[in-house]
Amino acid sequence: MYHPPPLASTGPVAVSENKMDKLIETLKRHEGVKTRAYQDPMGTWHIGVGRNIHPEGPNQGVGITHDEIDFMLSNDIARTIQELSEEYRWFQELEEGARRDGIINMHFNLGRTRFAKFVKAIGHMESGNYDAAAAEFLDSRWAKQVKGRSLEVTDMIKTNTYV
What we know:
163 residues, 2 domains, 3 strands
């Protein structure tokens, strides 16, 4: 069971840990638990357990905090690394550094399915021909869509240095 960090306030708004567990259980039952964004009957966007993420207007929500963004990003990076490790033996053999991070960055952006379509580039990565891999990655619709990002990422892959 998730236990949020202690509240800074010790005043009347603080809730004891035992009561928090019951409150969490009740809210989950009443609100439901949604792993994807959804609209309520009024058209307001929510996620999770009723978190209002509506972007604007009278129903504008609280969104998410920077700590929550960092938490989700860390989880997404870990998932990306796991997917790459399961799919590509050559990725497991890459040393930590800019080249590996470039591949993670690109896979993070594209997702597993679209990344896998770079068959020639992936073949070049497997054989250690990073210049050819970078050229293949650059010769794509992805590179045209993300522009400067593609130049930076492919340079990282080619040179194993950060820009």
